[in-house]
Specification:
With 175 residues, the chain is mainly α. It has helices at 10-13, 23-39, 41-45, 51-83, 90-99, 104-116, 124-148, 153-172. α4 (51-83) packs across α5 and α7 (124-148) packs across α8.
């Protein structure tokens, strides 16, 4: 029997275990909602609603946004997996993205502050969190595609790259 060696950081780049996988998208949704509420607090406070009701509305909108993005990115990743030569199930891709979602709780404040910054330059901390969180998320997705969709590493990374290119080109239409 061959024993696998684990690095001290293997827990960081491993997605959530199966029994907790769906909690990832919920964690990412709450992280995004709270980050947007914090980054845009002056607008939230000036909305005319009380703080609790305003944050509840921001959270509901943030959760709806994250759930929509979860399904949309999963659909693109499912198609790109097929283009890369493996046949992931749509549920497998959804589970992969959700199991990798908790690291996005670190990325959400960085993205929210970048979006709320307007004309100001992003802070070095925001850029650092975005870069590190994005890299860890991609590592987790690659491992998740191997675990859930049984994708070889090269095909999983190809799928991630194609999904990233597609999503970036789609987002560039809104600039």
């Amino acid at each position: 029997m061959v024993r696998q060696r684990h690095s001290p950081f293997s827990f960081v780049v491993s997605p959530l275990p199966d029994r907790l996988a769906l909690a990832g998208v919920v964690a990412a949704g709450f992280g995004w909602s709270l980050s947007v509420g914090w980054a845009c607090w002056t607008d939230v406070a000036d909305s005319g609603f009380g703080p609790v009701k305003a944050l509840t509305l921001v959270t509901a909108g943030g959760m709806a946004t994250v759930l929509s993005l979860w399904f949309a990115v999963a659909a693109v990743m499912w198609a790109m997996g097929r283009a890369c030569g493996f046949r992931p199930g749509f549920r497998d891709v959804l589970m992969t993205l959700s199991a990798s979602g908790p690291v996005l709780v670190l990325v959400a404040p960085a993205v929210a502050s970048l979006m709320a910054g307007g004309e100001t330059a992003p802070s070095p901390l925001s850029l650092f969190l975005f870069a590190v969180g994005g890299a860890v998320f991609c590592l987790q997705v690659a491992r998740g595609l191997g675990r859930y969709a049984h994708a070889p590493a090269a095909k999983a990374w190809g799928c991630i790259a194609l999904t990233g290119v597609f999503c970036a080109s789609f987002l560039s239409l809104y600039q």
